[in-house]
From TrEMBL, chain A:
Coiled coil: none annotated. Residues 1-21 are annotated as: Disordered. Residues 21-115 form the Acyl-CoA dehydrogenase/oxidase N-terminal domain. It comes from Actinomadura rudentiformis. Residues 1-17 have a biased composition (Low complexity). Belongs to the acyl-CoA dehydrogenase family. This is Acyl-CoA dehydrogenase.
From TrEMBL, chain B:
SUPFAM superfamilies: Acyl-CoA dehydrogenase C-terminal domain-like, Acyl-CoA dehydrogenase NM domain-like. The keyword Flavoprotein applies. Its cofactor is FAD. Residues 138-231 form the Acyl-CoA oxidase/dehydrogenase middle domain. InterPro entries: Acyl-CoA_Oxase/DH_mid-dom, Acyl-CoA_Oxase/DH_mid-dom_sf, AcylCo_DH-like_C, AcylCo_DH/oxidase_C, AcylCoA_DH/ox_N, AcylCoA_DH/ox_N_sf, AcylCoA_DH/oxidase_NM_dom_sf, Mycobact_Acyl-CoA_DH. GO terms for molecular function: flavin adenine dinucleotide binding; oxidoreductase activity, acting on the CH-CH group of donors. Residues 5-126 form the Acyl-CoA dehydrogenase/oxidase N-terminal domain. It comes from Actinomadura rudentiformis. This is Acyl-CoA dehydrogenase. One of its GO terms (cellular component) is plasma membrane. It holds the Pfam family Acyl-CoA_dh_M. Residues 244-392 form the Acyl-CoA dehydrogenase/oxidase C-terminal domain.
Length: 379, 411
């Protein structure tokens, strides 16, 4: 792999090699591992002062199941977007508190599009060492012209200064993948968590199943892993993959919300009948199904074009435009249709509600991607 | 004849289509600025459209490509649904003459119903003629008092000697003025529960006592008709199925409609591409709010298409299409409604008064037609009931109509 791959836009995601049956087997494995970990109870057991993720569950998924390098090109990993989507959907279904999206997908897919200097970080990441991606601007969106981190050459290395808020899994990370504006334009750098001048300040998060940090860099030593200002392309293309993976996670969460709501509407009795027999409730459930199945179409449509970067960009923007709002709406209706019990801390509805709102803000949100779509379509 | 593999089948279909039709793109008949959801054609135009569609259906019948999913004992090909879907998919590559509602009702609905439920005499005389569109048949199901609740119909049929005398009113009939026969559902026994007292008949549309009156829709045109039956005598030989079997036949007929395919596609209103072209022409694509609306529309349209495609692929591969199949009608009606709304927003005052600029005021045809699409063929509300009950397994509403039909409250 050379730095020019990012410039020419060659996809650096592994290839999807599993057939439908094997993908379903992968799905079953992830589902079983998550069920063994207690499903959503593992979210509630997160130690507030800990690293913000379920280390035991991550060890099983990353090392025993071998998912830490999923979607990365050989020799670091295997599989492609189809596999990533299946895993994200299953993890999203139970809000599994593991850094798969943050490390494997976000940091991994961007690193995979960088030059040969990224191999050290890729190797560590694929072995399960958590890496976090810090490319968002102060609004949490990826706008390469608007970065709040700058890079200066220093001796035979580089120094970074600035800040990046909203770094997913930033409290758990051993390394950061940072986009910064340097003399050649935007490049990608790796930064070690323990290096001088590096502070990952934990932030209080709406989503209780995930941690975020604000990354503060003060003349921090860094390794430049793209050259000549090719970092923006690497990030943009890596993010397109991640947008689809996030959409799959939103699909899984929305499906879980629908399932629990329908089960409740069948058994909860008021006025002498199951509330699901009232059209006011039944029609809302039907609308939830429409949102969920449309989200599934969006994910499958994007997975089908994984090898064509420009088609993928459109499909990823379409998927995020739909899935952010769909999940948020379905989660909100889940609380509403559960009535009083849905408003309690004990019930899982709020955990999904929190995740749905946080996910919609994670990589730009629906309105941002609709505007991107308008540009991609040449309007 | 041994069943071909799906691939062999596609090859056969493609070869026949290539020999019968020009490839897509050689069909320049489409009116450029016609965004109407329900076409408003003169009788002459309607007849010309029907003639072209009938020529294609005849060729299709003669080549053995009609009634694909109907059992062989009923004169069909007895093929799995996947083969009909494959046929429809192959058709999209060719300039298939635009179809009309009357053609699909004749071939898919009435033709199949007569083939399955007809007497040997009816099947010999009529089923083949309907499937080949030598005779055309419309559907006389809905009534002013029986829309979503079709089983509440009150057109009555009374036995008099070797005939039945029909009296009542039918509504929302497409193509009644061009049809030779009408498949009518009538109540023959009001003293049993409503579904059990219905019988199906085939009524010649020129029978004495039968009058047809076009309905003018809110969009201005007349795509549908009311049909009045005033003591219309129908020979018992034109009764379809046994007395009291009408509800079963009606349901089976509507299921044929869902499984039969390839009766041709019909353009319904303006597309997202049309709205984008409109916005470009009016220089509105720089407005951030307009961009949001256009992108939202694009998202819905491509995801609707992707969902339809997902269902077709599953069917074509012999898999069950799953819950996605149940949402496509609702998605279509939502996309259609939004398309009209966004077009209106984009053009501002031009939707309210015709300035003469091409491709602007013509959108009123779309805007005013979309509400009809939300009602036709199962309202949005009925779709949600079906999804809730059949897909999600939610319990039905308790019913207030379990007694004999004659004792039920009616509007």
């Amino acid at each position: 792999m050379t730095a020019s791959t990012a410039q020419t836009g060659t996809a650096q995601t592994g290839a999807s090699t599993l057939d439908d049956e094997e993908l379903e087997a992968l799905r079953d494995t992830v589902r079983e591992v998550c069920a063994d970990a207690g499903g959503t109870t593992s979210v509630r057991e997160l130690d507030e002062n800990g690293r913000g993720y379920d280390e035991r569950l991550w060890r099983v998924l990353a090392q025993e199941v071998g998912l830490a390098g999923l979607g990365l090109p050989g020799p670091y990993g295997d599989g492609g977007l189809a596999e990533l989507a299946v895993v994200c959907e299953e993890l999203g279904r139970v809000l599994a508190p593991v850094p798969f999206l943050g490390s494997t997908v976000l940091a991994g897919q961007v690193l995979a599009r960088c030059g040969p200097l990224s191999t050290t970080a890729l190797k560590a990441l694929a072995e399960g060492q958590v890496h976090a991606l810090a490319v968002a601007d102060a609004d949490g969106a990826w706008r390469p012209e608007n970065l709040a981190v700058t890079a200066q050459p220093a001796g035979d290395g580089w120094r970074l200064t600035g800040m990046s808020p909203f770094v997913l899994d930033g409290t758990a990370a051993a390394g950061f993948v940072v986009a910064a504006a340097g003399p050649d334009g935007v490049d990608v750098f790796t930064v070690a968590a323990g290096a001088p001048g590096v502070t990952a300040r934990p932030t209080e998060c709406l989503d209780l199943s995930r941690s975020q940090a604000m990354l503060l860099l003060d003349d921090a030593p860094a390794v430049r892993v793209t050259v000549g200002g090719t970092g923006a392309t690497a990030v943009t293309e890596g993010l397109d993959l991640a947008l689809v993976a996030l959409s799959a996670e939103q699909l899984g969460g929305a499906q879980a919300c629908l399932d629990m709501t329908v089960a409740y509407a069948r058994e909860r009795t008021q006025f002498g009948r199951a509330i699901g027999s009232f059209q006011a409730v039944k029609h809302r459930c039907a609308d939830m199904l429409l949102q969920v199945e449309t989200a599934r179409s969006a994910v499958l449509r994007a997975v089908a074009v994984q090898d064509d970067p420009s088609a993928l960009a459109e499909a990823a923007a379409v998927a995020q435009s739909w899935c952010c709002e769909a999940y948020a709406w379905v989660a909100e209706e889940t609380v509403q249709l559960h009535g009083g019990i849905g408003f309690t801390w004990e019930h899982d509805a709020h955990l999904y509600f929190r995740r749905a709102v946080a996910d919609a803000a994670l990589l730009g949100g629906s309105a941002h991607h609709r505007e991107r779509l308008a540009r991609l379509l040449g309007w | 004849m041994p069943t071909p593999t799906l691939e062999q089948w596609r090859e056969q279909v493609r070869r026949w289509l290539a020999a019968t039709l020009p490839p897509k793109g050689f069909d320049h008949d489409e009116e450029p600025d016609d965004y109407a959801v329900f076409h408003n054609l003169s009788d002459e135009e309607e007849r010309a459209l029907l003639d072209r569609a009938r020529a294609y259906q005849r060729a299709r019948f003669d080549a053995g490509f009609q009634a694909l999913t109907l059992a062989e004992e009923h004169g069909g090909r007895g093929l799995p649904a996947a083969y009909a879907t494959a046929f429809a998919q192959e058709e999209t590559g060719f300039a298939v003459p635009p179809s009309t509602e009357l053609i699909s009702v004749t071939v898919g609905l009435v033709g199949s119903a007569v083939a399955v439920y007809g007497t040997p005499e009816q099947r010999r005389r009529l089923a083949r003629a309907f499937q080949r569109t030598d005779l055309l048949a419309c559907q006389l199901f809905s009534e002013p008092g029986a829309g979503s609740d079709l089983a509440a119909l009150s057109t009555k049929a009374v036995r008099e000697g070797d005939a039945w005398v029909l009296t009542g009113q039918k509504v929302w009939t497409s193509g009644a003025r061009f049809a030779d026969y009408g498949m009518v559902l009538a109540r023959t026994d009001p003293e049993v529960v409503k579904q059990a007292g219905i019988t199906a008949f085939l009524v010649p549309m020129d029978a004495p006592g039968l009058t047809i009156r076009p309905i003018r829709q809110m969009s201005g045109g007349s795509s549908f008709n009311e049909v009045f039956l005033e003591r219309v005598r129908v020979p018992d030989a034109l009764r379809l199925g046994a007395p009291g079997q009408g509800w079963e036949i009606a349901n089976a007929t509507l299921a044929f409609e869902r499984s039969a395919s390839g009766a041709g596609r019909r353009r319904k209103g303006g597309s997202v591409g049309d709205v984008v072209a409109l916005a470009r022409r009016l220089d509105r694509t720089g407005d951030p709010l307009v961009r949001q609306r256009l992108a939202d529309l694009h998202v819905r349209a491509v995801l609707h298409a992707a969902t339809v495609d997902r269902v077709a692929r599953a069917t074509a591969a012999g898999r069950r299409p799953g819950p996605a199949a149940s949402i496509t009608k609702l998605m279509a009606s939502q996309t259609l409604t939004l398309t009209g709304r966004v077009a209106a927003e984009v053009m501002g005052a031009r939707i309210a008064a015709d300035t003469g600029e091409p491709g602007t005021f013509a959108w009123t045809g779309h805007l005013l037609g979309a509400p009809g699409y939300r009602v036709a063929g199962g309202t949005d509300e009925i779709q949600r009931n079906l999804i809730g009950e059949r897909v999600l397994g939610l319990p039905r509403e308790p019913r207030a109509d379990n007694g004999a039909f004659s004792r039920l409250p009616r509007s």
